TrEMBL record:
GO MF entry, a single one: metal ion binding
Keywords (A to Z) from UniProt: Hydrolase, Metal-binding, Zinc
Organism ancestry: Bacteria, Pseudomonadati, Pseudomonadota, Alphaproteobacteria, Hyphomicrobiales
UniProt xrefs under SUPFAM superfamilies: Bacterial exopeptidase dimerisation domain, Zn-dependent exopeptidases
Keyword Lipid metabolism belongs to the record: no
Co-factor note (free text): Binds 2 Zn(2+) ions per subunit.
Name the UniProt record assigns to this protein: N-carbamoyl-L-amino-acid hydrolase
The keyword Zinc is annotated on this UniProt entry: yes
Organism whose genome encodes this protein: Rhizobium subbaraonis
Pfam families associated with the record: M20_dimer, Peptidase_M20
């Protein structure tokens, strides 16, 4: 039996082939993927993952949020499982690796342990969380949020996509409502391996990011009410222009984020104009502000300032303004023992590494509420993600998976 410290590595070719096979499901329009949560493509991706898990000797269980848990038993019947998780859903114009790398590396860890004859004391569970992306149904990390007790199950089921379809109905439609109660499981530890989705590791020429923290976020959905009117015949001083109010708020968010440097970001990624016609001033505008920081005081301070200044902007224009927080989690500090296990695994393998703070949200952020948790990152080309051009190399992918294998075996015990 191979013990940690000997030549214990994953099968890089098999991991890469699995990534390429999954990427065939829900192809995008520019070489990436559109496998949004609870679509037919998501259902097809789940089926393939299930087949692979069962072929690897794992047993699948699904909870009421549709989250998939594939278990490889341990040798100690009383030991709590070590979890490896991430997501198979993508953005509408997503890459092939965001989330998918973490799930399929979990699978590869199991396949490699099978090949190497490694039996762990603790069971190992590979997890595919439902709706990590939040592109179709806000908030992001919805299923892990329910799992951690931070989001109500009924609230999750009631979330609507832009066509008005609910999460609950769509989960039923694709046939993935499981029997298991959400959050009933206890975890010995949780690991998530993910591409960085930013430029730091590549710029620093490091193979592995040892993730110590994740920044917190607020998603604020603004609904502005103006008056629909003819863009040609309505005098400038007689307009109640919700679009103008939105433009001023977008600029203000940029200013607030810039004035909170370093360590804060803020922007607007989604906007809906109604009626969205060239020659009608919009009567209604809905858009979402996304602000993030690893510093709790800065994060909450930015939110308060943005809401106050938005109210002033709208008042000056006679535009109605309401705000709903549709996504939130606090900054996270990952478990020091697991962080050290990741660092040691990278060192034992001779991989270059550095500490890093996750800029993106991950299911690990909710898992950290209920279990010791941490993450591993690999670089991605040009820091590009949430873009179909997202790219990594086979060597980057397998280096992180090697670290994951080693850290999981160390934590699960042999
Ligand atoms: C989720 O993918 C996020 O970080 O926005
Ligand atoms: Mn992701
Ligand atoms: Mn993502
Ligand atoms: Mn994410």
């Amino acid at each position: 039996m191979a013990a940690p410290g000997e030549n214990m590595r994953v099968n890089a070719d098999r991991l890469w082939d699995s990534l390429m096979e999954m990427a065939k499901i829900g192809p995008g329009v520019a070489g990436g993927n559109n496998r949004q949560t609870l679509t037919d493509a998501d259902a097809e991706g789940r089926k393939l993952f299930k087949r692979w898990c069962e072929a690897g000797g794992m047993t699948l269980s699904v909870d009421k949020m549709g989250t998939m848990f594939a278990t490889r038993p341990g040798t100690d019947p009383d030991a709590l499982p070590v979890y490896i998780g991430s997501h198979l859903d993508t953005q509408p114009t997503g890459g092939k690796y965001d989330g998918v790398l973490g799930v399929l590396s979990g699978l590869e860890v199991i396949r490699s342990m099978n090949d190497l004859g490694i039996r762990t004391k603790h069971p190992v569970v590979v997890t595919n969380w439902t709706n990590e992306e939040g592109a179709r149904f806000a908030p992001a990390m919805l299923a892990s949020g329910v799992f951690a007790g931070a989001i109500d199950l009924e609230y999750a089921y009631s979330r609507k996509d832009p066509d008005g379809k609910t999460f609950g109905d769509e989960l039923k439609r694709i046939g993935w409502v499981g029997e298991e109660e959400v959050g009933a499981r206890k975890m010995h530890a949780y690991f998530e391996y993910h591409i960085e989705q930013g430029p730091i590791l590549e710029a620093e020429n490091k193979q592995i990011g040892v993730v110590t923290h994740c920044q917190g976020l607020w998603w604020l959905e603004f609904t502005l009410t103006g008056r629909e009117a003819h863009t040609g015949s309505t005098p400038m001083n007689m307009r109640v222009n919700a679009g103008l109010a939105m433009a001023r708020i977008v600029e203000m968010v940029q200013t607030v984020a810039m004035e909170n440097q370093p360590g804060c970001v803020g922007g607007v990624g989604q906007m809906f104009f109604s009626p969205n016609s060239r020659n009608v001033l919009p009567g209604k505008v809905v858009f979402t502000v996304d602000i993030r920081s690893p510093d709790q005081a800065k994060l909450d301070g930015m939110r308060a300032r943005i809401e106050a200044e938005a109210a002033e902007i709208c008042e000056a224009l006679g535009v109605g303004c309401s705000v709903e927080a549709v996504g939130h989690f606090d900054p996270v500090t990952f478990d020091p023992t697991l962080v050290s296990a990741v660092r040691k695994a990278a060192e034992d393998l001779g991989y270059s590494h550095m500490n890093i703070i996750s800029g993106a949200g991950h299911d690990a952020c909710w898992a950290a509420k209920v279990a010791p948790a941490t993450m591993i990152m690999c670089p991605c080309v040009g820091g590009l993600s949430h873009n179909e051009a997202e790219d990594i190399s086979k060597e980057w992918a397998s280096a992180g998976a090697d670290v994951l294998l080693r850290a999981v075996v160390e934590t699960a015990g042999i």
